[in-house]
Design brief:
With 421 residues, the chain is an alpha+beta fold. It has helices at residues 22-52, 62-78, 80-94, 98-102, 110-130, 135-165, 194-221, 225-248, 250-266, 268-287, 382-389, 398-409, 416-420; strands at residues 5-7, 14-16, 300-304, 316-321, 327-331, 340-343, 348-353, 359-364, 367-373, 394-396. The chain is 56% helix and 11% strand.
Length: 421
């Protein structure tokens, strides 16, 4: 097997082989780039913090404003609706006069943050009651919350983050400028730096939002309210920690935010695949696609349920039965990369019929290994998948299997009824 990294004779330098999946190349390159970037940013932050101590507290340095902006963007990415609503309340309270309140951005006005925070409270109530609710009642609410998180994240990325990151003024003919030593003919080119800060803030927002959004997708996968509450509590704790650190010491908030961004970048591939899984799940669920869907005779879309070879978990691709009878999984890294394929282990396969989505299982004696996940559109079409790929049979799995066991225990199964008669 070709090695991913080859030593070229120069210490620390690495070369990628052309036939490796993009996910592995991305992870290795991203680790090197981000560690260097983090060291540079921390060094600049330390220098700026030392400089800011010598300045008047009433006129913060540009570095301090950048630190506050990065921390705010990180908090908004963790929970867009809650953080944007809280930021709006903060801006509203800080505005002393009606004129200042009238100049606030749209998220700083009660017409936005009051309904936003009420919706957050409704979601919190749903989470508290959901710990005792059955999955059949909880899943539709989880789907609705996932959609809300996508919409609020999209709104925040397009309207909130740019206004936070554009902290360099862009004035023409103004006597009050942030960088008078570079002002030329009444023009302040410092505002052009926003062309750098805004895209960087957008990248940081997307990386952190992907990880935070993964919590909503994990909740979709989990049938237990207790697990959901634990995941939500962790996200709320992280948002609270970022906010508290920001108010206690903006530089400490900057360091914490940079660490969160770094970790989010390192798991970006995992988060992206979870986002795709959640998007497909929600679309199939909302549109009732299973009622107008028919599986293909070959090459059906599925997700990997585990790492198969070098193919990561929850990769979206097509399962193909080749002419010689082999099962191969074809996919494109990040959905648009060079086509890759991995061969599934030989053996006996069955389709496990779940309550919300089904699975492709590899039977090894008395054990079953989940290999692939079928999108919700395949529910009620499991027999057709078995026929298309020549699998053994359809079996109950997950909660459906537990319910079948309970019915058998009390003599209510289909096979027990004739005997009882």
């Amino acid at each position: 097997m070709t090695q991913l990294l080859r030593n070229t004779g120069q210490e620390g330098r690495r070369v990628f082989s052309d036939d490796e999946p993009w996910e592995l190349q991305y992870d290795a390159a991203m680790k090197q780039i981000l560690w260097i970037g983090l060291a540079l940013v921390l060094g600049a932050a330390t220098s700026e913090a030392a400089t800011s101590k010598k300045t008047d507290a009433a006129s913060p340095t540009r570095g301090l404003e950048a630190a506050k902006a990065i921390t705010t963007v990180t908090g908004v990415a963790i929970s867009p609706l809650l953080a944007t609503g809280a930021l709006g309340v903060y801006e509203w309270v800080r505005a002393d006069t009606p004129e200042e309140k009238a100049q606030l951005p749209w998220y700083g006005r009660p017409q936005f943050w009051l309904p936003a925070l009420l919706l957050v409270a409704a979601v919190a109530f749903k989470d508290a009651a959901g710990t005792a609710a059955p999955p059949g009642l909880k899943k539709p609410l989880d789907v609705a919350e996932t959609i809300e998180n996508k919409v609020s994240g999209l709104v925040a990325a397009g309207a909130v983050v740019p206004s936070i990151a554009a902290f360099f003024p862009f004035d023409i003919g103004s006597a009050q400028v942030a960088a008078p030593h570079i002002q030329m003919a009444g023009f302040n080119p410092a505002g052009l730096l926003n062309l750098v800060t805004v895209p960087l803030a957008m990248v940081a927002f997307v990386l952190v939002w992907l990880v935070a959004h993964a919590i909503n997708v994990l909740i979709l996968l989990s049938p237990w309210g207790v697990v959901d509450a634990a995941l939500k509590s962790f996200r709320t704790f992280l948002l609270g920690l970022v906010t508290a650190t920001h108010f206690v010491n903006p530089w400490a908030g900057l360091v914490l935010s940079l660490l969160i961004i770094l970790l989010a970048a390192l798991v970006a591939g995992w988060s992206f695949r979870l986002m795709i899984f959640g998007s497909v799940y929600v679309w199939d669920f909302l549109t009732g696609r299973k009622h107008r869907f028919q599986p293909e005779p070959n090459a059906n879309w599925m997700f990997t349920a585990r790492k198969i070879g070098k193919t990561p978990i929850r990769t979206y691709g097509r399962l193909v039965r080749t002419d010689d009878g082999r099962l191969c999984f074809e996919y494109r890294p990040w959905l648009f990369g060079k086509k890759q394929n991995v061969e599934l282990p030989a053996g006996t396969y069955v389709v496990g019929r779940g309550l919300f989505y089904s699975e492709v299982l590899l039977v090894e004696g008395e054990n079953e290994k989940i290999m692939l996940l079928l999108p919700p559109r395949y529910r009620t079409h499991e027999e057709e998948v078995v026929k298309a790929y020549g699998f053994l049979e359809v079996r109950a799995t997950g909660l459906r299997r537990a319910w079948q066991w309970i019915k058998t225990l009390f003599g209510f199964s289909a096979k027990a009824s004739p005997a009882a008669a």
